[in-house]
């Protein structure tokens, strides 16, 4: 055993790495200083299981960092977990708009700024390991946790996950999740998801690969089973794909509590850390090692990765320690407002009288009716593990009152179409806020999971453990649980349907009949089918779960202080029949390549609104698309964008590829795929040459020999949305061979 001072072992290794020493060598030398027991301590959480469970249920989830693998004797800081992704779950942090809303900005620079802010808030509150880079693909819009991811397209998901990672990792290790095929909520602990290699690599793993290439520190596995093996102990995914194919060198961690089913099998398969408490590994690994079900080589492999990841992070993170005042500070609140306003998607804006319904004009608004149960509700998303307990949330009603001090504002909150219509009839305009809450969609953590024998078998025995007895007594008394404010239990789950409540549709039609100047703002994460009421109103805006400053941002957009600049990060079908089959209680399901815009294109169904769609308060024209020479699988395109309208605004240039000669049905490959995108702001009449970074990867198909072009050439078009009839086509085809 080395005589290195226990207090300086990690700091000495860290200084050596900063001076140019190989991080692998430094991690190996640290590993040599650990006792066998300390090596095992690196492989799970530090808190005893029942103490952690009791604390979570009574005091709230993740209010302080959850420590894993901290070794005080050698000064090893450990992985100090903070959840996300709409902000730092720790303490009382800034609630940014949910990830799906941020995806609607189509602006990775903006997302990187969000990542930097979140990383600062994590670090300022003692965390270093942010488990909030969620890039799961929502195969069906009913998925309850669609709000935690960025959209339906693998390229969009990958670029936004990479941007968040870049921002966070200036101050904290970023963790991408949930690897893999996690897009069912109610059945997440029991469902086996089957997918062939082509679907896996072309669709469901592509965005994880991109985030790994960006240098993400950690990968969190999902709860579900993949092709017959639980993701947390799936050697093909962990050692085969993640490390063998992609070269991932960071740390792998399980999802919380139910993320693995066999301690030894998970270690052999390449899972480094069981999160978040001392649970199955603490109970079983010593005997597993003694009896040969796992080896000390497996232990050292995982321990070395844990040490290496920490050393690399501390050697490269920003030097300055952020003050605690950065948390929910003025700068981060302003950023939350900016992001929320940029995210809102204008779906419809008909002319009423002599001008489009939006933006509203302050000078013509003597009175305004603000209608709906959600208009004055602090509604930032679900109450599961992503819940951010912001000190303050500005509601839509408050935002409009602040922005319109001279306007008489009437609020009709109840589910009463007659009363809502009466309020609207006497106003110059009406704004309806409709949609969903945490009761309708989100992470599902219900009390019934604590009665499932398969899940209960993963818990250590309670025995005479006072914390275990406290947990059991708390669980038996739901009134004692700190539910919403603490992020304990959540209703949520997968959505039962894709439409608004019937009473909401009634209110919309009643209000529109009483006042032709009616705007509907939809609070949602996933797609909402609007066919039964959309024709009745002139303006429809997707307002999302928009965070701490969402009410002010909504006023910014409705009043035209900010352009309507959001674009849909997914397609919205005209009918549920145009979507893949979805059974939220299924125990087995097969995922193929077909969902969203790709499925609509293949089957010839016109969407209500296509991927990338969104209106602006001005207009834009594209011209002169040229393509650069590919460098590996990356290339650049250039296009001239002109603001042809009367005011400043923002546009999103979307680059799509159409592989020539490919038939979607016969060839099992999409007719059109997203290759790249870029957002640009322009003054009225201004033109700019915009460079769009792009990738040829979406034009490749998976074979037994790896990726090959789906076609030797592809037509590339610059568009405002998928299938845009005004798209500009590059004069030269993109050559892929």
TrEMBL record:
The lineage of its organism: Bacteria, Bacillati, Actinomycetota, Actinomycetes, Streptosporangiales. Belongs to the glycosyl hydrolase 3 family. SMART domains: Fn3_like. InterPro entries: Cellulose_deg_GH3 (IPR050288), Fn3-like (IPR026891), GH (IPR017853), Glyco_hydro_3_C (IPR002772), Glyco_hydro_3_C_sf (IPR036881), Glyco_hydro_3_N (IPR001764), Glyco_hydro_3_N_sf (IPR036962), Ig-like_fold (IPR013783). GO terms for molecular function: beta-glucosidase activity. Residues 651-733 form the Fibronectin type III-like domain. Keywords: Hydrolase. This is Glycosyl hydrolase. GO terms for biological process: glucan catabolic process. It comes from the Bacteria. The keyword Transmembrane does not apply. It comes from Planobispora siamensis. The keyword Hydrolase applies.
């Amino acid at each position: 055993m080395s005589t290195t001072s226990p207090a300086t072992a990690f700091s000495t290794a860290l200084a050596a790495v900063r001076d140019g020493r190989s991080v692998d060598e430094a991690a190996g030398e640290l590993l040599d200083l650990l006792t066998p027991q300390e090596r095992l301590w690196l492989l799970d959480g530090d808190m005893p299981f029942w103490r952690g469970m009791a604390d979570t249920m009574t005091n709230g989830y993740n209010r302080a960092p959850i420590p894993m693998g901290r070794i005080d004797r050698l000064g090893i800081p450990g992985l100090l977990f903070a959840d996300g992704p709409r902000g730092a779950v720790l303490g009382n942090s800034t609630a940014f708009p949910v990830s799906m809303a941020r995806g609607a900005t189509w602006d990775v620079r903006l997302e990187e700024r969000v990542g930097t802010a979140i990383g600062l808030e994590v670090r300022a509150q003692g965390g270093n390991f942010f488990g909030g880079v969620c890039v799961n693909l929502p195969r069906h819009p009913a998925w309850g946790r669609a709000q935690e991811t960025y959209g339906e397209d693998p390229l969009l998901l990958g670029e936004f996950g990479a941007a968040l990672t870049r921002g966070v990792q200036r101050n904290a290790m970023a963790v991408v999740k949930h690897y893999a095929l996690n897009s069912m909520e109610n059945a997440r602990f029991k469902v086996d998801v089957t997918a062939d290699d082509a679907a896996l690599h072309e669709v469901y793993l592509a965005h994880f690969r991109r985030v790994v290439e960006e240098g993400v520190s950690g990968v969190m596995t999902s709860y579900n089973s993949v092709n017959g093996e639980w993701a947390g102990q799936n050697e093909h995914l962990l050692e085969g794909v993640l490390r063998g194919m992609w070269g991932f060198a960071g740390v792998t961690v399980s999802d919380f509590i139910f993320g693995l089913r066999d301690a030894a099998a998970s270690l052999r398969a390449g899972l480094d850390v069981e999160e978040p408490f001392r649970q199955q590994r603490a109970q079983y690994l010593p005997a597993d090692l003694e009896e040969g079900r796992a080896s000390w080589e497996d232990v050292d492999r995982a321990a070395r990765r844990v040490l290496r990841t920490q050393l690399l992070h501390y050697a490269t993170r920003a030097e300055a320690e952020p003050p605690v005042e950065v948390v929910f500070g003025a700068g981060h609140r302003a950023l939350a407002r900016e992001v929320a306003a940029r995210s809102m998607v204008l779906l419809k804006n008909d002319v009423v009288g002599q001008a489009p319904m939006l933006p509203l004009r302050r000078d013509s608004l003597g009175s305004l009716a603000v209608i709906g149960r959600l208009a004055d509700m602090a509604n930032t998303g679900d109450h599961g593990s992503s819940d951010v307990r912001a000190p303050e949330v500005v509601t839509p009603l408050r935002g409009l009152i602040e922005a319109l001090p001279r306007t008489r504002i009437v609020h009709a909150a109840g589910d009463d179409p007659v009363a809502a219509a009466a309020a609207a009839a006497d106003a110059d305009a009406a704004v309806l806020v409709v949609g969903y809450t945490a009761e309708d969609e989100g992470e599902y953590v219900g009390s019934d999971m604590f009665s499932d024998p398969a899940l209960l078998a993963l818990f250590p025995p309670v025995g005479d453990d006072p914390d275990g007895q406290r947990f059991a007594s708390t669980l038996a008394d739901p009134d004692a649980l700190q539910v919403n404010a603490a992020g304990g239990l959540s209703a949520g789950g997968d959505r039962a349907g894709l439409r608004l409540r019937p009473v909401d549709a009634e209110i919309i039609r009643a209000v529109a009949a009483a006042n032709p100047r009616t705007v509907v703002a939809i609070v949602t994460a996933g797609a909402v089918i609007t066919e039964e009421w959309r024709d009745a109103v002139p303006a429809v805006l997707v307002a999302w779960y928009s965070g701490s400053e969402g009410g002010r941002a909504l006023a910014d957009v409705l009043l035209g202080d900010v352009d309507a600049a959001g674009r849909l990060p997914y397609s919205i079908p005209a009918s549920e029949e145009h979507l893949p089959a979805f059974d939220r209680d299924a125990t087995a399901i097969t995922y193929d390549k077909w969902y969203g815009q790709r499925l609509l294109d293949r089957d010839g169904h016109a969407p209500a609104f296509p991927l990338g769609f969104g209106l602006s308060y001005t207009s834009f024209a594209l011209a002169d698309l040229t393509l650069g020479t590919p460098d590996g699988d990356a290339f650049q395109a250039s296009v001239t964008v002109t603001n042809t309208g009367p005011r400043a605004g923002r546009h999103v240039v979307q680059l799509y590829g159409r592989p020539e000669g490919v038939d979607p049905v016969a060839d099992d490959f999409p007719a059109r795929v997203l290759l790249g995108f870029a957002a640009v702001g322009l003054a009225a009449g201004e033109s700019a040459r915009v460079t769009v970074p792009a990738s040829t990867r979406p034009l490749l198909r998976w074979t037994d020999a790896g990726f090959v072009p789906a076609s030797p050439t592809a037509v590339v078009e610059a568009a405002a949305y998928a299938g845009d009839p005004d798209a500009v086509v590059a004069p030269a085809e993109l050559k892929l061979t």
